[in-house]
């Protein structure tokens, strides 16, 4: 017989079974999400800019421009320049939108990101204050 009787044996058995269960129920922290890649953030900024221009959301499009363009323009001038560009601007925007929709890769190195949009032409973004801003749609 178990020293201390049946009652001691039952208590020991319960404790032995309870210990592994409490260890198994210990909360496990989920893995930390991977930090966003600069290429993905730049692509998102370019996509938002293209959508803003397409929808005529000039204040939002203006806010996505690089500081050099924001120093020279305002939302109204951006809209007027876009209208004056006519089909050339519309084609450039359509190329960027089509490339983004097809999953084309944005290349980021340091504070500059680019998307090849045609022979010798690129869309360029600059990282300013932790955010990507459109600098060119050439």
Note down, in words, how this protein is organized.
The chain is of the alpha+beta class and 138 residues long. It has helices at 5-24, 38-54, 58-63, 67-72, 75-102, and strands at residues 107-109, 112-118, 121-128, 131-137. It has one domain. 56% of the residues lie in helices and 18% in strands. The model is unreliable at 8-16 (pLDDT under 50).
Topology:
Elements: H1 5-24, H2 38-54, H3 58-63, H4 67-72, H5 75-102, E1 107-109, E2 112-118, E3 121-128, E4 131-137
Antiparallel strand pairs: 1-2, 2-3, 3-4
Helix pairs in contact: 2-5
- Read across the widest sheet, the strand sequence of neighbours is 1-2-3-4
End-to-end gap: 90 Å
Low-confidence parts: 8-16
Q: Helicity level, as a percent range?
A: 55-70%
Largest sheet data: 4 strands, antiparallel
- Assign the structural class, choosing from mainly alpha, mainly beta, alpha/beta, alpha+beta, or little secondary structure: alpha+beta
Query: How are helices and strands ordered from N to C?
Result: HHHHHEEEE
Note the beta-strand portion: 15-25%
Number of helices: 5
**Total domain count:** 1
Total beta strand runs: 4
Radius of gyration: 29 Å
Write down the overall mean pLDDT: 86
What does the overall shape look like?
A: elongated
